[in-house]
Structure formats: structure tokens, C-alpha cells
Amino acid sequence: MKNRDVIVKAGSRVLKSTPRKLNLVAGLVRNKKVSFATVQLRFCEKKAAGLIRKVLNSAIANAQNYGLDIDNLYIKEILIGKSLTLRRVCPKAMGRANRVSKRYSNITVKLGEII
User: Fold this and answer.
1) Residue 31: DSSP 8-state
2) Distances in Å between the alpha carbon of 19 and those of 45, 50, 75, 96?
3) Spatial distance between the Cα atoms of 55 and 61, rounded to a whole number of angstroms
4) What is the mean pLDDT of residues 98-102?
5) Distance separating alpha carbons of residues 22 and 79, to the nearest angstrom
6) Structural domain boundaries of the chain?
7) Which of 76, 82, 103, 115 is 20 to 30 A off residue 23, Cα-Cα?
8) Rounded distance between C-alpha atoms, residue 9 and residue 15, angstroms
9) CATH of segment(s) 3-80+107-114
10) Residue 115 pLDDT > 90
11) CA distance 67 to 63
12) How many CB atoms lie within 10 A of CB 99?
């Protein structure tokens, strides 16, 4: 099987989940066929699986717009990146305060075609 370069891609920005949690789920479906990946993400019970599945479905829809056969598509790359970080203050004893970081993420899914 020869693999061509990236055919289609889709992305989502500023998702309320940390990159670390998204990377755990993205590792399940990297370099897998699209049909297998959608089933894996559907039955994974993590919130991150739902976020990645939405972006994957968007990439599949983009592939259909180009008239590509979905059975020959595989996930070439899933890129998880850092987005903005909200910083909050959590009051502690004796007048102290700790900082709490609320992290956001970006997802990019690139699909390739198996020839």
C-alpha cells in the first residue's frame, strides 16, 4: 500500500479540554482507518473522544465534498496543540492564594488516502 500526502484536513480551536487529555485519546486512532477510528471514538467514554470525533466527522465531510471514497481514507495526523490558558485564583489559608490554570486546546485532523 502506498500512501499519498494529506488529502483533506479539518480543525477546531479553543476547546475546553487540556492537551494532555486529548493526546491520550488521539493516540488510540493515529494512523488508523477512518471507519475503525470512528467506532473507537464512539465507544470511548472520555469527553475528549467526543471532541476528536466531531473534528474527524468534519474532515470526513470535507473528503466527501471532494468526491473521495471514505473506505480508502486513513488518519495521517492528529495534531493537538496548546491554546489559551485562563488563570484563576484559589484562596488559601492565612491570606495566601494559589493560581489555577484552565487550559484550552486546538485539534487538527489530516486525512490521507490509501492507494
Assistant:
1) T
2) 17, 14, 19, 29
3) 10
4) 97
5) 10
6) 3-80+107-114
7) 115
8) 17
9) 3.90.470.10
10) no
11) 6
12) 8
Question: What CA–CA distances, in Å, run from 75 to 23, 56, 70, 94, 107?
Answer: 15, 9, 11, 52, 13
Residue given cell 487550559 in the structure block: 103
pLDDT tens digits for range 18-61: 999 999 999 999 999 999 999 999 999 999 999 999 999 999 99
User: For residue 36, what is the enclosing H or E element?
Assistant: helix 34-43
pLDDT at 59: 97
pLDDT above 70 as % of the chain: 96
The model's pTM: 0.89
Q: Which three cell numbers stand for residue 96?
A: 495566601
Residues 6+ apart with CB under 8 A from 12: 51, 54, 55, 58, 106, 107
Sheet holding 3-15, edge to edge: 3-15, 97-114, 73-91
Categorize the per-residue pLDDT at 2 as very low, low, confident or very high, splitting at 50, 70 and 90. Answer: low
